[in-house]
Structures are given as structure tokens and as C-alpha cells.
Amino acid sequence: MGVGGRQRCLVGLVIFVASTIVLFADILFEESSSRPASSSISLNPKMLIYNAVQKTGSQTMNKLFKKLSDPKRRDFDYHHFSCQASGNNSRQKSDYEQEVFRRRVLSKAKKHRKVLISQEVHFIEFPLDELHPTYFTMLRDPVERFRSRYRWSRIGKETAKTQFRSQGFYEPIAVRNLNFDQWRKRKFDECVLGDHRACNPQPGDIVDNQVSYLCGQGLKCVSFGDREGLQRAKDNIERYYPVVGVLEMLKETFVVMNRFLPMFAKAIRPLYNQHKEEYHLNSSSQKSGNVSEEIAEKLKKIFSVEYELYDFVKARLADQYMKVFTYIPTHKIIAIIAAFARSNHFSHYVQLSVFLGESLVVHQPHEIRAHLRR
What we know:
By secondary structure, the chain is α/β, with parallel strands linked by helices. It has 2 domains: 10-32 and 331-372, no CATH class; 40-144 and 204-325, 3-Layer(aba) Sandwich (Rossmann fold). It has helices spanning 3-33, 58-68, 95-111, 142-152, 157-164, 180-185, 188-193, 210-215, 219-222, 227-240, 250-260, 262-265, 268-274, 283-286, 293-302, 304-325, 330-341, 346-359, 366-372, and strands at 43-51, 77-80, 115-119, 132-139, 243-246. It has a 5-stranded parallel sheet, with helices on both faces. Helix 10 packs parallel to helix 16 (304-325) and helix 11 packs across helix 16.
């Protein structure tokens, strides 16, 4: 067999191996892309609920979503629901309020092809007799979020009055015994180190924690430090949240959103990079340096359950990011195949086979398969 014939045989062998890998890659990638293979829940990719967690960059994210939903682009329709409910905790809903929320969401979806609903609300499950809405949210380092909320609640007098009247949802007040001025002027460091209950929540206290937003409705979800609530939050993430972003990993969050929520976040990273200053409304008023090591260590122990969820989400996001970040565009892979096809060295074909085997399994196989079959 001549050199040309041997070369064509080797190219054919490589393409056959690559095609086989890609066919199986479809299954593997689909299972790992958004939710566990064991989950039987089907998510509606055209209906996204952003149940925003307060003080995790929600203003920035809502502004980005609103910009991306510009009527001129007609990519999707954006609706922001205000937080209204009986009682002090508007994020926890009665059975009736949950049903009202479901009907409101579904009514928007019936009218529009793609819809994004944003509201500060703890996770609400939908009936499984139809496609379940897809969920998305953001988390933040628990200590930084707690401190940010503490300072924010005291910045403006009217805001502070509202927070002071919240009767303990955001800060336990069972042993506070302070008037409004004392409460507002007390420094964060003093609050933590002085063992004031507002900055030292105890297991079972009702606190505005991040676990609640992902756990959902019910006492277990709002009870501080409840491990059953933590597990339920993790389970909900795996079932209903293709992406949970992290404020401290914003670049990775945008990359993963672009891949796993393409109908709503395809251009979110360049949009953010073009208008960074516009999307940081509160940063200037809350810059106060880092917390001391003593305070950080104390709060990390108090918020240990919160950190378990935070670390779980960070690890999941990092894994998703690596799969997307190492993605090699189709045209580059085809160019490499063409370059190797012009070589007479068998070792080059072996390298190409290894390259395809290592890369295609964890990347988008659909486009590549189309090219390999040509």
C-alpha cells in the first residue's frame, strides 16, 4: 500500500474512533451538564426562576437580566415580582401564597415563549405533571454576606427603621433589649465580640440564611443550622438548579451560565464587562475593609452549616467551569484533524486519537459529530 493509501486508512481510523467517542459523549455530557442522571425531573429550559438571595449581587444580576431581555432583542421576557406576603418573612409563603406564586409564574409562561421570573423568595416546588421551571440563584461567602447585610440595614434611617421593626427575622431580638438608636449605632465588631444575639445566632433561630433560599418552604428551611434543611437544599440544587453562581467566582459563574442557561445568559459576560461600573450600586457605601481574623474565625464556626452549603456550591461550579472552560471550538478541532491528515507520521495519529478521547467526552459533541460525519 502506498503512502497516500496508508494515510487515508489512518485518517479513516481516527475519524471512526472519534465518531464513536462523540456518540457516547452525548450521553455522558447530557447526564453531567445540569442535574444528576438519577433525577427523573424534567426541567423547562424556557422558564427560569431567579429566586434571588439578598446581598449576593442580586441588583447586579437583575440589571443584567433586564438588559438582556431588551424588547429590541426579544430574547426573553423579564418579570420582577416584589416581595409581598403576610407576616415578617415575605420569602416564606403560606400554602395559599405558594399556589398564587405558581399560578402567576405559569400565567407568564403561557403568554410568552421564554420567560424569566425574579423574586426574593425561598424555593417553591411546582407540580410534576408538567415540565418543572428551571431555577437559578447566587450565593456569597456567608461571613461577608452577614456583615454586608448588617451594615446595609443600618445605612439609611428609613431603611434602618424598617429593619428594626422586622421583629427578628433578619436578626434574632429575643435578648436584644436595645432602642432604635442603640441598635443602629452599635458597630459590627462590637456586636460579634460582645456576644450579642443579633450577631451570634443560635441553632433553631429564625435567620435570613442562604440555606433557606435553596431548601424551600417550612420550618426546617428557616431554622438556623438545621442539617435536614441543608440536605434538602443540596438535593434541590441537584434537581432544579443547573447553575448556582457564586459572587466571589463571578467570571466562572458567567461562563457556566452561558453554557447551561444559554436562552437567558448567552451574552451576560461581555455585557457585564462593558458596563461594570453601572452594576455596582452599593459597593461604594459598604467598603469597610476585611474583618479581623478573630471575628472571621468566630463567625465561621457559627455559620458552619452555611459554609458547608457554600463550599458544596463552589466545588460544583468549579467542576462545571472546568468542563466549559477547556472546551475547544469545533473549527479548531477540524483544523487540527486536517493538519494531522497531511502528516505521514503514525505517532501524530495516535496523539490525535488521545486528544479526541480526552477532550470530546467532556465537551459539546453535537457540532463535532456533524463535522466528523461529512
